[in-house]
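tl;dr need the bound structure. longer version: we got a ligand (protoporphyrin IX containing FE) that a collaborator sent over and nobodys looked at where it sits. i said id run it. heres the input, straight from their email, havent touched it
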Amino acid sequence: MNTSITKFDDDAPDAQQGQVQQKQVTVWDPLVRIFHWSLVSAFFIAYFTEDDLLDLHVYAGYVVAGLLVFRLTWGLVGSRHARFTDFVKRPREVWAYLKSIVGQHPRRYLGHNPAGGAMIIALLSSLVLVTISGIVIYSIEESAGPLGASLSGVSEFWEDVVEELHEFFSNATLVLVFFHVTGVLIASLQHKENLVKSMVNGRKPVEDDAA
Ligand code: HEM
Ligand code: HEM
């Protein structure tokens, strides 16, 4: 379950009641933070190198694939706010949260809010499709990668289909990233906190009235 500002993070050493304002608690463990910023770098390297730098493109794509395997595992066994059970909510809750943003009175969450959680699932799903289609097209066109030459004989039709899928999901991910960063900025403004900084140092402020 997602933790709202009305609760402290039990794991945090400074999460004791009755202390001064703007106390900080650790929300994002180091692996989540390394995952995030590595994903950002590898995604943009892959996105902008597909043409002339296919080797670099493929290496960056493999990094994305490895990061996805890590994050999907960490979502099951990782720290409290990294787990899917902490931030994946039913569509009804996501919708109610989105309406509360427009109404200017959204609840603050210590972990990902319901809309952020839905966006993370969309981003991870889209990236899984990008990397799988990338591995398939690499086998078809270059007879290389984990699938080797096993798909080198497929028809031009299927080659085109996979290429289109790879391109489509790459661009779809970019569109999702745009809304993701917009959501981060809106939430930062509405709650007067710096969520980007939190994804760097792992910490978020806990207001005094949370005690
Ligand atoms: C420079 C642009 C970016 C910024 C400033 C940014 C910022 C953030 C922030 C602040 C969070 C935490 C949100 C929260 O507090 O609930 C987050 C989470 C996340 N972002 Fe980004 N992001 C950026 C680009 C990207 C890109 C390019 C991707 C993927 C292609 C991405 C994927 C994710 C994922 C998967 C999470 C969830 C982290 C986790 O729980 O493991 N972000 N991002
Ligand atoms: C997040 C990771 C990735 C992103 C964002 C990405 C993005 C792209 C984009 C935008 C294109 C150009 C599509 C076109 O104009 O036809 C492309 C082409 C390509 N990608 Fe990826 N890709 C990723 C991962 C991978 C991986 C893991 C592989 C292989 C192991 C791969 C192999 C290829 C190949 C072979 C092409 C050339 C296809 C053609 O002939 O047009 N990609 N990729």
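gonna send this back to them w/ a short note. The pocket of protoporphyrin IX containing FE (ligand 1) is lined by residues 32, 35-36, 39-40, 43, 71, 82, 112, 116, 120, 123-124, 173, 177, 180-181, 184, 195-196, 198-199 (CB under 6 Å).
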